[in-house]
Structure formats: structure tokens, C-alpha cells
Specification:
341 residues, alpha/beta, six-stranded parallel beta sheet, 27% strand
Length: 341
């Protein structure tokens, strides 16, 4: 079987990899599409994500779709088009008992040590973490349901999106999903920021009321202007760099909420205590998603959230190096890039 293998920083190549044999409760999936997540780009460019790294060649990729090749005694029929939830919780620890499966103490995650990722011809994965997708959802776009789930979860953490003025700082895929979902949840105004004009154009296309190019305007001032000096009720940080968090903290109203989704390269933030305290701000962090697949799939099936505009490029597996380089460069209007095994 062939796989995309990362050998080191800035070095991914196609090579031979042992085919998986599914354990009890797992299905065998023929992988059709894997999209490159910002976390994969951190590992490609920096060798780790938030301090987690591999010390051996590994297969990247956790946003994946495919076709069930072997049901292995589970109730997922052969031939079912599916999307994977890359997080498999133990179901037995104190966090799982509380329903916080995404914070499971024994979580297995597709593409983090010791579990190799999905950028290969075949993968074995628990049937209960493998979701059938409706025919209306294109298999190549289906991996985007994973980052969509993160947006669904981020919105879940916001106390009251209905009628709110919302800032989405950073128009990568998760930011663009968060923007669409804020609209679905009834936000009155959604302001989106980014540095890349093509991303801001997509943001407008999928529903942003206002876009701000942070290379041209100070986003805190621009948000104040747009909100009559009040500030937004909720800001979602979906860019990564610490400046984006500062901008979110500056852009929310007193008693506003900042919900942090992005991953900073340096793994560190500095925040001004007085700014948080005097305005009694709420700062919340998003850890991926928690059981949001059924809802996310429904939103796509019903046409309430669009995946298509976010999948900008497709590469065969042999050109994975090029795909990762483009994802790192964020060039050519790239948002999410699919690698097709
Ligand atoms: Zn991801
Ligand atoms: Zn657990």
C-alpha cells in the first residue's frame, strides 16, 4: 500500500507502508480525500504542533473521507461513503463520564503519536467514529466536515450568538465555517478579518457583512467604527498568531466573550490582566469538537453551510510535497487543499 510519509521538516514523500488490519469494532476504509489542516502545516513546517511531535517517519492527515472497504462485522455496509472523526475516546475515564469525550484522558487521535494519519490508500478506524455521508455531499469535499465540527463546537461555547455582533479574526477554513455558523445561529452582524484579499472575498461570498484587511486597517479601530464604538459581543480568534488574540480582546465590548480556536506557532500568549479584569471579559478555548458530526453533516445536507468554496485545490498523493508547501505559503487563494490517495 502507498502512503504519504513525512520524513522531516519540509519533507513529505510517497512510499510503501504496511496495510492496516482492522481490530474488533473497526472498519477498513479506502481513503479518497484528505485535507491539509493548519495543524498539519505546523508539523510540516515546524516539526511539532503545540509541542507534540513524532520522532520517526509518520503518515500525516486527520481530515479524511473514503469508502468502506470491509465492514469487519460492524453495521457499516461495504461501499458506504464516510467521513472520519479523527478523535477516538476511551468511553471510560472521568472526562468521558462527563460527556467531555474530546477531553478524554486516553484519547487516540488519527495522525498524532502513536496513531499514523489518513494520507494513505487504506486506514482502519473505529466504526463508531466513522460517519456515513449523504450522496449530496461530494466525497472530495467531505473531509471539511471535520473543521466544520470545530466551528459548530466553537459556536456551542458562545453564550448567546442570536442577535449578536460577531468578529471572526482569521478566514482560514475554520474561521470561514465559524462565520457561516454564526449566521446560521442568528448573529446580527458578522465582521471578518484576514491579511489575504482572496480569503476576504470568500468571506463576503459566504455571508460576512463586513470584511477588514488587517494589513490596511487597525482591526480594533475598524470594529469600533462598525459597531458605533460599542465593540462586538463575541470574537472568535481563528487566525493563530498572538496579535489576533490581542485584536479580539480589544474588539469585544465590556463583558464580551473571546473564543480562541487558532494555534499560535510559539505556543504562548501574553495578555494584559487589567484589560481582561476591568472589562470583565470571558476568554474560552476550543479543543477541537465534541460529538458534533451528526449536526455538521445535517447542516451541509440541508445546504445551510457550504463546503465547496473552502476547498480550493486538489493534488494527487504524488504531489503531496507541493500541496503542503502551498498550504504553508497560503498562496494562490488556497484555503483547504485536498490530497487524493
Ligand atoms: Zn484539523
Ligand atoms: Zn476517556
Amino acid at each position: 500500500m502507498r502512503a504519504v510519509i513525512q520524513h522531516g521538516i519540509h519533507d513529505v514523500r510517497v512510499g510503501e507502508w504496511p496495510p492496516p488490519s482492522p481490530s474488533a469494532g473497526e472498519v477498513l476504509i479506502r481513503v479518497r480525500s484528505v485535507t491539509i489542516c493548519a495543524s498539519d502545516v505546523h508539523v510540516f513546517a515546524e516539526g511539532n504542533v503545540g509541542g507534540v511531535s513524532w520522532d520517526e517517519p509518520f503518515v500525516p492527515g486527520h481530515e479524511a473521507s473514503g469508502i468502506v472497504e470491509d465492514s469487519n462485522g460492524t453495521d457499516l455496509p461495504i461501499g458506504t461513503p464516510v467521513v472520519l472523526d479523527p478523535a477516538a475516546s476511551c468511553g471510560a475515564c472521568d472526562m468521558c463520564e462527563r460527556g467531555l469525550y474530546h477531553l478524554c484522558r486516553n484519547l487516540r487521535f488519527l495522525d498524532l503519536p502513536p496513531v499514523h494519519g489518513a494520507m494513505r490508500e487504506l486506514v482502519a478506524w473505529p466504526a463508531d467514529r466513522t460517519f456515513a455521508i449523504p450522496n449530496a455531499v461530494e466525497l472530495v469535499e467531505a473531509p471539511l466536515i471535520e473543521p466544520l465540527c470545530i466551528g459548530v463546537h466553537a459556536l456551542e461555547l458562545a453564550s448567546r450568538p442570536e442577535g449578536a455582533a460577531v468578529l471572526v479574526a482569521g478566514c482560514g477554513a475554520i474561521g470561514l465555517f465559524t462565520l457561516q455558523l454564526a449566521k446560521v445561529r442568528g448573529a446580527a452582524t458578522v465582521i471578518a478579518t484576514d491579511l489575504i484579499p482572496e480569503r476576504l472575498a470568500v468571506a463576503r461570498d459566504i455571508g460576512a457583512d463586513v470584511t477588514i484587511d488587517v494589513s490596511e486597517a487597525d482591526p480594533v479601530e475598524a470594529v469600533a467604527e462598525q459597531t458605533g464604538g460599542r465593540g462586538v459581543d463575541i470574537a472568535f480568534e481563528s487566525a493563530g498568531p498572538p496579535e489576533a488574540l490581542e485584536q479580539c480582546l480589544g474588539a469585544v465590548r465590556p463583558a464580551g466573550e473571546v473564543i480562541v480556536i487558532g494555534i499560535p506557532s510559539e505556543d504562548e500568549y501574553r495578555v494584559r490582566a487589567s484589560e481582561l479584569r476591568r472589562r470583565e471579559l470571558t476568554l474560552r478555548f476550543v479543543r477541537r469538537q465534541n460529538e458534533n458530526y451528526a449536526e455538521a453533516i445535517g447542516l451541509v445536507r440541508d445546504g445551510r453551510v457550504r463546503l465547496g468554496p473552502l476547498l480550493t485545490h486538489r493534488f494527487p498523493m504524488e504531489r503531496a510535497q507541493e500541496a503542503f508547501e502551498l498550504a504553508e505559503r497560503k498562496g494562490e487563494g488556497a484555503i483547504r487543499i485536498a490530497v487524493l490517495p
